[in-house]
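User: If only I could read backbone structure tokens as easily as an amino acid sequence. Underneath my words sits a plain record pairing an amino acid chain with its backbone structure tokens. This is the protein in question:
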Amino acid sequence: MISIIITAFKEPRTIGKAVEAVEFGTKGIGHETIVIAPDKETLNVAKKAGAKIIKDSGRGKSAALNLAVSKARGEILILTDGDVYVSENAVNELVEKMKDERTGAVTGKPVSVNSKKDKFGFWAYLLTRTADKRRKRALREGKKFFCSGYLFAIRKKFFPKLQEDLLSEDGYISHKVYEQGFKIGYADKAEVYVKYPDNFRDWINQKKRSAGGYNQIRKLLGVEMRSFRKESSGAFDVLEEVKGIKELFWLFDLFLSRVYLWLLIYRDINVKKKNHKEIWKRIESTK
């Protein structure tokens, strides 16, 4: 049996589609779909869509995951979010990869639904395409890579107790899988469709959460899974996706924005020593 856990927070407009997408792809598979959220509006829609619901305390995603996993009955967990939706074959693809007993977790493939015709849509396309190429290369070369929090599967026995102030649960969980001596697989046909930020403020706030989370993991575990240096080393992967002068200018703007982002992360975590609640911001334009 598998347990599909969807974490959500004030997402009544999107949770129905999220539940329907996973249910459509689980025909013939013994499963339960759990939606955990702190607000009644989201939970009411999820219940109508056929999911089991759990009301959490509103202390953040880590606390919600800890609670949901403790109540899940499946030996394999599939984790996703309430503001995204998966492809019809996604669950099957993840479960198939998990048949390898040496595999502790399997990540899905985020796909941007933003239009490439504007700068922020182009950035989203560029970064998701680059992440796909890097995971495939790492898989071929036997190198480590981390799961995407938008969609991944994990054996329940490997799911760690999460600190509630974690900014990047996916990176922390990924490291813990490797720490147990197991590998992470990549199901590139298990797509998860994501709406990315469409303005600079939301873009910065979202990336501060994700990229800053890996800086936090480095301090907690002594492992550098992501950094400005590592990002810069893959410049060719990004360049080969650029078509035309306009996209080249957008790429240069992205580079400057990433520099600014990492400076903000250093300031917030190392100088101002901001906590989880101060860094975590709700990204309205992704809903």
Notes: The longest helix spans residues 245-271. The beta strands are 2-7, 31-37, 52-55, 76-81, 85-86, 103-112, 151-155, 183-194.
